[in-house]
């Protein structure tokens, strides 16, 4: 996942620095780089990580010419650590590569001076499998986008020194766009729709609004998840709840960010789930509330390339799957032969992670 930091240390007046911090907070930027004397004032403005040359910071940041032992001390105190390295020569590039291998440096922040993207390319390739994050210091959004895309992998993050406050908000939008996931959807043919009695079902209320065609991927088997539509469709029975997906019983799997799954019963406020649309475009959403209530249930069985997959949903006209045409279909109207959107996965799951292992689900 890409991330962005914002520098609020270079402005002369506290009032100017404060405005940058406030905009970072409003834009959900996770980290601001600040002067040591501003740390406590920044924390009074809101809950945001601060990076600074101080052991009081959340991320202890030093420059190339500072004593590297300071980062060792910070790491021993349980702090995250970072070093800022302006690249002015090949020796600086080699120094950055060396520092990244020390084991007590979490981030290397690279600033380019009179150079193209070549040093960043070299460092990304060199440190590909190292447990260190590469952050590019940039002055505008164009540089930020380029840094994120270098060698396809790109830098892990950027540090933006904004020319204007609006750039902070635009950086947040860029990161959100880059972090969107794409889910491969296919169609399965319904083979059985059968009421099965009552059970505990889960409604997921999110901190985001959904639209027609969006929902969540849920299923009784990890290998076959059905796209369950959000409660965004107008109906004569109840008001719409565009923040809600009536997802299914407590045992079912739901797809979460990073291609991980969770049981519906494990979800709680503050967790993250994936909202997926009919085209497979996915975005993160924060769970605001989970409602578990006893309701009548219906078993839905479908066939995908000879494999039978199943899920269970509440037996109500307002609960819908998504047809192959992208339109929602109520479970009370669903019948054998209908085609619905699913995500099929040949891998099994162990604690929510996809693994190459034979597991029988039936």
From TrEMBL:
<comment type="similarity">
    <text>Belongs to the archaeal-type DHQ synthase family.</text>
</comment>
<dbReference type="Pfam" id="PF01959">
    <property type="entry name" value="DHQS"/>
</dbReference>
<dbReference type="InterPro" id="IPR056179">
    <property type="entry name" value="DHQS_C"/>
</dbReference>
<feature type="domain" description="3-dehydroquinate synthase N-terminal">
    <location>
        <begin position="1"/>
        <end position="174"/>
    </location>
</feature>
<dbReference type="Pfam" id="PF26558">
    <property type="entry name" value="DHQS_2nd"/>
</dbReference>
<dbReference type="InterPro" id="IPR030960">
    <property type="entry name" value="DHQS/DOIS_N"/>
</dbReference>
<comment type="function">
    <text>Catalyzes the oxidative deamination and cyclization of 2-amino-3,7-dideoxy-D-threo-hept-6-ulosonic acid (ADH) to yield 3-dehydroquinate (DHQ), which is fed into the canonical shikimic pathway of aromatic amino acid biosynthesis.</text>
</comment>
<dbReference type="GO" id="GO:0102042">
    <property type="term" value="F:dehydroquinate synthase activity"/>
</dbReference>
<keyword id="KW-0175">Coiled coil</keyword>
<keyword id="KW-0028">Amino-acid biosynthesis</keyword>
<protein>
    <recommendedName>
        <fullName>3-dehydroquinate synthase</fullName>
        <ecNumber>1.4.1.24</ecNumber>
    </recommendedName>
</protein>
<dbReference type="InterPro" id="IPR002812">
    <property type="entry name" value="DHQS"/>
</dbReference>
<keyword id="KW-0057">Aromatic amino acid biosynthesis</keyword>
<dbReference type="GO" id="GO:0003856">
    <property type="term" value="F:3-dehydroquinate synthase activity"/>
</dbReference>
<feature type="coiled-coil region">
    <location>
        <begin position="161"/>
        <end position="188"/>
    </location>
</feature>
<dbReference type="GO" id="GO:0051287">
    <property type="term" value="F:NAD binding"/>
</dbReference>
<keyword id="KW-0520">NAD</keyword>
<feature type="domain" description="3-dehydroquinate synthase C-terminal">
    <location>
        <begin position="188"/>
        <end position="362"/>
    </location>
</feature>
<keyword id="KW-0560">Oxidoreductase</keyword>
<dbReference type="GO" id="GO:0009073">
    <property type="term" value="P:aromatic amino acid family biosynthetic process"/>
</dbReference>
<dbReference type="GO" id="GO:0008652">
    <property type="term" value="P:amino acid biosynthetic process"/>
</dbReference>
């Amino acid at each position: 996942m890409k991330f962005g930091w914002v520098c609020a240390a270079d402005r002369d007046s506290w009032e100017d620095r404060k405005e940058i911090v406030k905009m970072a907070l409003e834009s959900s930027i996770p980290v601001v780089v600040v002067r040591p004397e501003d740390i406590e004032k920044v924390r009074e403005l809101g809950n945001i990580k601060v990076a600074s040359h101080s052991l009081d910071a959340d991320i202890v940041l030093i420059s190339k010419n500072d004593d590297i032992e300071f980062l060792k001390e910070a790491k021993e105190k349980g702090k995250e650590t970072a070093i800022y390295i302006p690249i002015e020569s090949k020796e600086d590039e080699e120094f950055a590569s060396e520092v990244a291998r020390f084991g007590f440096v979490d981030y290397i922040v690279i600033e380019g001076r009179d150079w193209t993207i070549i040093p960043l390319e070299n460092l990304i390739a060199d440190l590909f499998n190292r447990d260190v994050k590469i952050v590019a210091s940039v002055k505008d959004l164009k540089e930020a986008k380029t840094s994120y895309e270098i060698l396809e992998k790109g830098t892990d993050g950027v540090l933006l020194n904004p020319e204007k406050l609006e750039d902070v908000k635009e950086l947040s939008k860029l990161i959100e766009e880059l972090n969107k996931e794409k889910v491969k959807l296919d169609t399965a043919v319904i083979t059985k729709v059968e009421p099965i009695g009552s059970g505990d079902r889960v409604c997921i209320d999110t901190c985001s609004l959904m639209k027609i065609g969006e929902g969540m991927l849920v299923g009784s088997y990890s290998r076959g998840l059905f796209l369950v539509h959000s409660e965004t469709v107008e109906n004569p029975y109840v008001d719409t709840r565009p923040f809600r997906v009536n997802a299914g019983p407590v045992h079912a799997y739901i797809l979460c960010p990073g291609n991980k799954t969770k049981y519906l019963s494990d979800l709680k406020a503050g967790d993250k789930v994936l909202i997926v649309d009919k085209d497979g475009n996915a975005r993160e959403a924060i769970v605001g509330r989970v409602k578990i209530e006893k309701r009548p249930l219906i078993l839905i069985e479908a066939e995908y390339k000879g494999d039978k997959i199943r899920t269970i949903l509440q037996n109500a006209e307002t609960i819908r799957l998504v047809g192959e045409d992208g339109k929602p279909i109520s479970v009370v109207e669903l019948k054998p032969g209908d085609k619905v959107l699913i995500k099929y996965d040949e891998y099994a799951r162990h604690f929510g992670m996809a693994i190459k292992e034979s597991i029988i689900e039936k």
